[in-house]
Amino acid sequence: MTMTKHLSFLCLMVLLLVAACNNKPDEGVQPNSTALEDLSIPEDFNFETENINSITIDTDLKNTPFRLMNEHLAVILEEKTDANGQFSHALNIPTASDKIYLQFNKIGVPQDSFAISRSAGFDFQLKTSRGNERSQATKINGDPGLGFTYLGGWDTNGVPDYLEPISDNISGDFIQTIQTTLPQGYPVPEYNPHYLQSSVKEFAVTQNNSEVWITFVHESAGFKNTIGFYTYPTNTPPQTPEELSHKTIIFPNASLNGSGGGLMMGDKVKLGTFDAGTSIGFFIIPSGYDGQQPSRSPLGTFYSLLDLNPEQDPNQQHMVMLWDQDEDRFVLGFEDLNRENSGCDHDFNDLVLTITSTPQFSTSNVPTTQTFSDSDNDGVDNAFDRDPNDARRTYYDYYPGAGTYASLTFEDLWPSKGDYDFNDLVLDYQYQIVKNADYKVSFIEGIIIIKAIGAGYSNGFAISFPELGQGDIESTKIVTKDPNDAVFSTGLFQRASDGTERGQRHAVIPIFENAYDIMPSFGGAYVNVVKANPYLTPDTLRFSIELTTPKLISEIGNAPFDPFMIANMKRGYEIHLPGHENTSLADVDLFGEGDDDSNLSGSKLYKSNHNLPWAINLPVSFDYTQEGKSIEKGHLKFVEWVQSGGSSYQDWYLDLPEYRNDSNIY
């Protein structure tokens, strides 16, 4: 490159930077009117992309842990039903979401992800007890042409008519043992590899007239699986599945009542009486029940005898055998997917059964079940405790969901109107509500990601918690990715020793005083809003607020609580989401000035005389517009959403066909 070209390039860069840095008006200079100001916007519309909904759960599952998940199956709440099997709580749910999901987390109850729909008022009811329904059901006999032997018939749910008249009593201690031994989502090869290393895979009968029973305990499968057993001479095990001549169906549909079947914990079947020299093995047919008969599934059949399975070592095993010495019974745990399939979770609890016999089978070389382990003495097993070494941290709720982020976007010229590009400050964020074993909130924690700063001002950020008083906060920690970042260096916030802001009637937690101190701009102004400028990696802060005394989730308010901006390093210039109240330190004389049309005695707050806001909350990580491009220029359904008062195009912020003009989005 010649010297002339060097100079021309440098001049061009300077011109671009100057142009970029002058897009924003200085204080007191009004931007040009946009089409947004000509819209007819309902006065009671607060630009909410979510709303409060009462979630009601009514079941016969008493004191049963569960989790609620959003439409993307990200966890939003961990709780349990009460002594009547009920639960009720108000949650913020995106208006664009038609449903959330419920999943129980206890052995012996359905593990399905049950949909709770908006159309049903987010009301969910479930009955898992079987009652007398089975005796009135249609009886089905097994089809002899399928190559199986049958112990009897069954009803349309696959519940056998040959169940023992007295079910096994499965104790609470044994349920806890199973949960500890085969926890959901914990791969056995990683957490308990010794289960797979046992040389004992099947039961060898050593005495004549041995009686054997099998008991259903639990299933967490997505399929209606069929389970059966086979026998062979102990000294001549089969080498291929075709050599099995005695395959008997035990449970044609090994599914819980309320989860695609009709079985209940404790349902027991006698397999028969066997002579010495006989070995008993088991097979599982994934998705084997077709509503009438066990079938040969395209997913295959898997056997307790390793060599009969299609996978290569070490993924051949589909059943673990364990011995529980307290209950004097064997535990069988099954994996129902091909273990070379990426969807297999290898936790071996897709189906859990127990085996008892007279006389008892040998327990030699059989791994034992695990005992309850509770390092922090909070009454919750380590396998289900989010922090087994801290009794204050047992369960976590998330907003907007585990592993996901919401966004806050601000205009900073309040009480004067802005340019409506809503990129003066763009934050991604997530709340984590940390609860103890009693489901009481111990900490409110969060992640704040500064994505963009399209402001000529230096702006701060804080969160108000209207339901919490100053005395409710024990301590606050703010941690930045770079320990040298100056979060509180200007004196904008007067912080008490517990991290709250002094002089407030509610708990207000300052997060940072000047976004530019954390994420300095290229050339002195603007970050990630002008495509001609270099992109800066968004910066992350984490905060942790410990409560003085743990509180019920209903006592702390709903996320996102009340986040707000402090504009231009002037403490009284608070910018809240529309409809949210100012804090004690806001300059109330600014209301009604400029373009603000707030009514402090009413519900119209932080909206202009054109009913436009200065801040918007989005339930997703938001793709904002470039500097100077008002929001409707990038998000083409925004106008219709606004004019409808939020009833049309409730998902306007998503990247869907004809929803965007990508050339105006950063």
How helix-rich are the residues, as a percent range?
Answer: under 10%
Total count of helical runs of at least 4 residues: 6
Q: Beta-strand percentage?
A: 25-35%
Mean pLDDT: 91
Separation, N- and C-terminal Cα atoms: 31 Å
Describe this structure in words.
The structure is a single chain. With 666 residues, the chain is mainly β. Helix content is 7%, strand content 28%. It contains 6 helices and 29 strands. Strands 19, 20, 21, 22, 24, 26 and 29 form a 7-stranded antiparallel β-sheet that branches. Strands 8, 9, 11, 12, 14 and 15 form a 6-stranded mixed β-sheet that branches. Strands 13-10-18-17-16 form a 5-stranded antiparallel β-sheet, with no helix packed on it. A hairpin with a 4-residue loop joins strand 16 and strand 17. The radius of gyration is 31 Å and the shape is elongated. The relative contact order is 0.12. The model is unreliable at 1-33 (pLDDT under 50).
What can be said about this structure in brief?
The protein has 666 residues and is mainly beta.
How are the secondary structure elements laid out?
Elements: H1 3-21, E1 50-59, E2 65-69, E3 75-80, E4 86-94, E5 99-104, E6 114-117, E7 123-126, E8 149-150, H2 172-181, H3 188-191, E9 203-204, E10 210-219, E11 226-233, E12 247-251, E13 268-274, E14 278-285, E15 302-303, E16 319-324, E17 329-334, E18 351-358, E19 395-399, E20 406-410, E21 425-435, E22 440-452, E23 460-465, E24 473-480, E25 507-512, H4 515-518, E26 539-552, E27 562-566, E28 574-576, E29 615-618, H5 631-634, H6 638-643
Parallel strand pairs: 1-7, 8-12
Antiparallel strand pairs: 1-4, 2-3, 2-5, 5-6, 9-14, 10-13, 10-18, 11-12, 11-14, 14-15, 16-17, 17-18, 19-21, 20-21, 20-29, 21-22, 22-26, 23-25, 23-27, 24-26, 27-28
